[in-house]
Amino acid sequence: MKRFLALFCALFLISGFAFADDEEVDINDDIDQEQPKVEEDNEDQDVVIKSTLNLNEPGDQYIKIGLMMTCPLNFGGSFPLFRDGNLATGGSGMLGYHRFITNWWIVGLDVYFGYHPTIGENLFTYIPFVLDTTIQPTFKRFEFPLTIGIGAAMENYLSRTYFPGLILRGSAGAFYRATPSWSFGLEGDYMYMPQWYDDPKYNDYGLFGSFVVSARYHF
After folding, report:
1. What is the pLDDT of residues 43-87, one digit of tens each?
2. Are residues 160 and 144 in contact, defined by beta-carbon separation less than 8 angstroms?
3. If we measure between CA atoms, which residue out of 186, 212, 205 comes closest to residue 87?
4. What are 143-161's pLDDT values in tens digits?
5. What distance in Å separates the CA atoms of residue 211 and residue 219, rounded to the nearest whole number?
6. What is the rounded distance in angstroms from the CA atom of residue 95 to the CA atom of residue 112?
7. Burial level of 159, CB count in 10 A (0-12/13-18/19+)?
8. Which residues in 3-25 are b (16+ Cβ under 10 Å) and which e?
9. Model pTM greater than 0.85?
């Protein structure tokens, strides 16, 4: 009987130690499982802070598309040309790639395709390639790009082609950052496009003002 009681006590003590070890392991496992969750929460908070407070950083990029209504200001005659000159109001589309050097300074390349009907029902077309630089102040989700650029254009009217034509461009706009990936806005665009020939009497100076509806995809 005494041997039986001793054996029973020994088994009871061993079971108690084993149960205590299991509880300790379970507690440690729970701690290990909860730790990555804290790190994930911190990462999520960092993303939220960036998306709400600092949408642009050096190295960020965006692709810009725009549709433009363009008025010739003095090309081929006196202002306003669409009333008494040679060119009527036309339009153009543009596609651009831009990269942030700082969180407020941007450089990029824009390509346009523009056209203007003439009073003779012909078309004057031009394809400018413009290197530009932009300063962009921001206020909360609103962005205000101020841009200047220089480039060259291929200009065509009937069978005559003028290339390369100098392009000087300036624009100002206001955009709303709807999401971290998309912004939408309106711009006013001014373009100076001269044509110079060996005989100065054929020289001309195109001035164009445009109203632009734009969208930008940020990545």
Report:
1. 555 444 444 457 899 999 999 999 999 988 876 554 444 445 578
2. no
3. 205
4. 999 999 999 999 998 888 8
5. 26
6. 7
7. exposed
8. eeeeeeeeeeeeeeeeeeeeeee
9. no
